[in-house]
Amino acid sequence: MKRYRSSIIVALLFFAIWQALAMYIDAMYILPSPTAILEKIWELKDILFLVHLPATLLITIEGLLISIVLGVVLAVAMNISERIQRALYPIVIVTQTVPITALAPIFILWFGYGIWSKVLVTVLITFFPITINVYDGLRSTRKDMEEILITYGASKKDIFMKLKFPASLPYFFSALKMAVPLSVVGAAVSEWLGAEAGLGYFSKRMMTQMDGAGVFAPIVILSLAALILVEILNVLENKIVKWRNEV
């Protein structure tokens, strides 16, 4: 609990200022108070947590899994071959220059309002940090360590498994902790542009009804979901990358 004490204090101060400001403005459709948002979440808890949250999490998790596979494969390929790196690296960068709000309607046009149009939006947002970070992790190994292993008769596979792979793990987890919030944002944006369920869809529906608390309620839930997922990653990282804590 001591670890989160400062964050809790800052959060309480932030919400206290927000509550006071909302009471001063006194316009719920512009700036609903935190208490009003919590009341809305409690009022609509069944539909929010049993219908819309699962829909958004499904998009988020599927998009992340695809991004992990795609990002790691691209990173390994670029590390193995300099020719592949020169060919792929600019393309990976260019994919991040295209506005998501421009591509999302195209994906919906191609794949309809089903889940895959939204998963593709999430993948497009999240695979980049995974690819770049894992690639940098694979390149972070010292050349003299590689030369020592080669001297002892290690193959390229041995060098990868015993040196490059362990060195890339901290980079991989850092990439995941960046990708998780991005995946949540990607899922919500894609739902906002076209969906039949999901927290982004619900927020848009509440906006058309000028329900400020209803618009903010899914945002709060999305933020909490991202925080929980990142904390799970922190726990996994501490268990898997034990050697980093011992250095």
From TrEMBL:
Its main location: membrane. The lineage of its organism: Bacteria, Bacillati, Bacillota, Clostridia, Eubacteriales. It comes from the Bacteria. PANTHER family: ABC TRANSPORTER PERMEASE PROTEIN HI_0355-RELATED, ALKANE SULFONATE ABC TRANSPORTER-RELATED, MEMBRANE SUBUNIT. The chain crosses the membrane at residues 46-76, 88-109, 115-135, 171-195, 215-236. PROSITE patterns: ABC_TM1. Residues 53-237 form the ABC transmembrane type-1 domain. It is found in: Cell membrane. SUPFAM superfamilies: MetI-like. Keywords: Cell membrane, Membrane, Transmembrane, Transmembrane helix, Transport. It is a multi-pass membrane protein. The gene is ssuC_4. One of its GO terms (biological process) is transmembrane transport. InterPro entries: MetI-like (IPR000515), MetI-like_sf (IPR035906). It comes from Clostridium ljungdahlii (strain ATCC 55383 / DSM 13528 / PETC). This is Aliphatic sulfonates transport permease protein SsuC. Belongs to the binding-protein-dependent transport system permease family.
